[in-house]
Structure formats: C-alpha cells, structure tokens
Amino acid sequence: xxxHTANTRMLTRLCFRLLPVQILLAAVGSVNGIVTSLxxxxxxxxxxxxxxxxYAPASMLVGAFSTxxxxxxxxLCAEFKGREQxxxxxxxxxxxxxxxxxxxxxxxxxxxxxxxxxxxxxxTQDAQVCAYFDQYLIGMALGVLPQVLGQQLSAxxxxxxxxxxxxxxxxxxxxxxxxxxxxxxxxxxxxALGLALASSIGLWVFCIVQIFCFLRPDAVxxxxxxxxxxxxxxxxxxxxxxxxxxxxxxxxxxLWVNGLILAYVGNAGLSAFTACNSFLNLFWAVPxxxxxxxxxxxxxxxxxxxxxxxxxxxxxxxxxxLPLVCAMAVALILCAVPLTRLYYQDPSAPVYMMAVWxxxxxxxxxxxxxxxxxxxxxxxxxxxxxLVHITALLDGVLCVGIYATLLIPLxxxxxxxxxxxxxxxTVTFCFFLxxxxxxxxxxRDLAEWMVxxxxxxxxxxxxxxxxxxxxxxxxxxxxxxxxxxxQRGIDPRRAMLSALALEEMAGNVIDHGFRKDRKPHSVDxxxxxxxxxxxxxxxxxxxxxxxxxxxxxxxxxxPSRNIGIRMVYRIARxxxxxxxxxxNVLTIRI
Length: 590
Hints:
Elements: H1 5-44, H2 46-82, H3 86-116, H4 127-141, H5 144-159, H6 163-187, H7 191-211, H8 230-264, H9 267-304, H10 307-334, H11 336-340, H12 350-361, H13 365-382, H14 385-411, H15 414-439, H16 446-450, E1 463-468, H17 471-487, H18 492-512, E2 523-530, E3 533-540, H19 563-571, E4 574-580, E5 583-589
Antiparallel strand pairs: 1-2, 2-3, 3-5, 4-5
C-alpha cells in the first residue's frame, strides 16, 4: 500500500473512462473530413477534392487559435481547480468564450469575402478548382463560430465531468453530416457549396446541443462578464501559444508541401495526399484524445503539486496508451489497399498507388507523435517556453518542409510521407537531448526523462503518499500518519487529530463509496507538511459525494448520525471538496 501501484490503477481507470469521449470529440472533425472527401471524390470529382485540400491551410489557421484558447484556458482552469480556486476557473471560462466569439466573427468575415470576391486565384490557376474553392469558402465561413465555440464548450464539459453532453453533441453531428451531404450534393446538386453547408450546419448542431448545458440554473460554469481581467487573456494566449504556433506552422507547412506536390507530382499527388490525411485524421483522434485526457490530469497534478500523480499520468501514456497506438498503426498499414479503394478504384491510375503508399507510411508517425505531444503538454504546464517553441517550429514546419524539399526530386510523392516519419524521429530525439542536457547524463528514470525538479511540491521527507483498499489498512495507516507528523516536529495534539480525521474520512469512503457499485476502487491519500500547515488530501474514484452535505444532518432518533463527519469539520482548520474529472478530492487542513 506504500507504492504507487494503486494510484496508477486509479489513474488508468480514470483515463480509460474519459478516453472514449475525448477520442470522439477529436474525431468529430475527422469524420466530417472523411464524409466530405468521399462525397467530393465519388460525386463531384478530383477537382473538388483538390479544392477541399486547398482549404486545409485556412482550416488549420482557424484551428490554431481555437486550440490555443482550449489549451490555455483548460490548463489554467485545471490548475485553479487543483488549488481549489473555483471562482478563478469561472473567470477563465467566461473570458475564453468571449475571445472565441470575437475571433470567430473576424474569421467568418474574411473567409466569406475571399470566396465572394474570387480571391482564390492566389492559390491556384486552375479555373474549375478555383470555382469550387470559392463555393467551399463561402459555405465554410458559416461554420467558423460553431466550430471554435463548440471546441471550447467540449473542453469545459470534460473538465466538469459532464462529457455525456459533449458525447451526445458529437453523435448528433456525425449522424446529421452525411444526411446533409446527401441532400445538398446528390439531391440539390450544390457541389462544393453543398459540402461546406453540410459541414457548417452540422457544426451548429454540435454547438447548440452543448450550449444548453451552460444555460441551466444549476450550471457550475456560466458566462459572466463583470469580473473579467484581460490580463488573464494574455496568460491564456501565452500558455496555449504552443498549440496555436503548431497549427500556424502547419498552415505554412501545408502551403509549402502543397506547392512541392503540385510542382513535382501534380494534382493527382495532392488529391492522394488529401485523401490519406482525411481518412487518417479519424485515427489521429486516438492520440489526440489521449492527449486531451492527459492534459487535464497533468494540469490538475501540477496545481496540486502532486509529484506522484504527475509521474503516473506519464506512466499510463507509456505503458497503456503507446501500445494501443502502435497496434492501431500496424492495422492501418496492413489495410492500405482496401482503404485506398474507398477513394480510387482504378489501380492503373497514378493517384491509386500514391494513396496506397500514403496509407502504408503515414501511420508510422503516430507513436512518435503521442510521445512528443505528452512531453510538450508537460512543458506547457511547467512554463518551459523555449523548449516548447523550438519543438513547435521543428514539428510544425521545418522538419517536414526541409526533408520533403530534399527528397522529392529523388523519391517523388513518397518523399512527403517519409518526411513526416523523419519529423517524428527528430522531435522525439530533441526531447531526449533536452533531458540529457538538464540532467547532465542519460536519464535513468521517468522523473529524469521529464526533468521534474527535485523540489517540485515538497521534498520527499515532507510528504507521505499512501493508497488503501480496506478498513483494516485505514486503521494501520492512521498510526503511520501520526508517527509521520511527530517525526516532522508537529505537536502531539495536531498529530493525533490528523490521524483521527484521516481514519474517519477514508473509512467513510470505504464503508459507503465502495459499496455503491461492484467496480474495484482505492483511496489515494497524501499527507503534506508545508510551511507549517498540515494538509491531508483524500482522493477516490467512487460516486460523487460532498461530506459538507452531511455535516449538519443528525437524525431525530439517532443524534450520533454523521457524527464522524461533523467532528472532522470541527477539528479542522478548513475542509474543501471538489469533484475533478470524476474523482472525489477532499482536502483537510489541520
């Protein structure tokens, strides 16, 4: 019970409980991309598919700012939750929504004017592709606001453990999008405009289903503009800037790579590349969902200054998430031919084999990307801005662009795919070099790989981490906690009260929370002596329960009812409760 095993099990269960919804949220845009690309290639033609591919840089640019807002605001909110500053979380939410709406209004206007004024000739000289691109921009302009706002709402619903509504919104979008594509493209013959309108209307459905959750009277997070501090806006943008820069770099990279493909390979190459990316984006949702889960848990752990949980999150990534991603990549490689036939049926056409090799090579990027994304996220939360920005520049544009430029005269279309794999290897190696430089030797354990400061939180001698799964273990650890307090020089009375409070609250979780279902549970306990304050943190994954709801309840026929909870509230300096990501977190200060 003194190892991190139980805590890792709890985190693993939590990660896999949160993961399906996060994957679905990440896959929503990808599903739309697959549906759009299938309708484009099979119902309109290769030129329409090329127009969809030309829109990719604009989509990435919109996604860049949206990702920056999501990353910065979610990390800040999770940290404030970890520090028990609920009001500050509310302020960050309101500011994030305001910024999202302002940015969306500007983007909508720019995209609409670009299509209406036929400015797409700046990107292609092909008249037919240009006409399709004009239509597509006008239709997609209508979906910018729900796209950006919906992404923000999904992030906060997940943080508040209300992912069910985000899940319902995703399902609604996935179901309505192909129906609208069929209606607009097959029945009404709106061509590229129909593709874009189907996507935009679907995004409005996705957004509206979620927004009602924040309009309810009992909503925890509500839009309030009275107490906003625009200094927080700078912090949101600073923390989330890596995501924005990466997407911004991807926008430039997309223009760079598209230019190379058109110059050396032609329209067929860009069509194949777009088809592969559109389909594989669905599977990229898996590592993206894994990152979304880890980002929330890493942020909360840093806010709590919980070294053990921080390391355990990365262990789950390495030993649970990474093998799944590797298996998925192998499966995609083996299915390269049937996946190509979804888009192109003529094996003799040049575009056919270009797509086959895309499906064979691009999945190799996924394991490297998962590792890099997690280490980058940790760097964001910890404020390692130089490392984060250097790797963003390398990953976002330089590596792929330079490798593709050097190889495309020799290898043709395959050089673009290979460049993406070499990019993953290069950026992963950069994180290794950073750890070697900071440690001044090859990392020997996970803490050194992450370069976790030795004084993160409190020192080893000033904290005690325990996990229990039975009442008998609770009794035993209460004695150990009392001994720990005495060893730290805490007066006997506070040491005794700490042990008593811990025994009561942890025992209450086991007696009642463990019996609510038949699932395995554990109670993660942390005792910290920090700056003269003795802090007890009790965390469990049972059904939500706030002990404050019982502290004033005494039965008329049984005055001793809830006496243990009432006693803890009397002897403690403060008691706070939060439900974070489905975990009960009780913090007691003695």
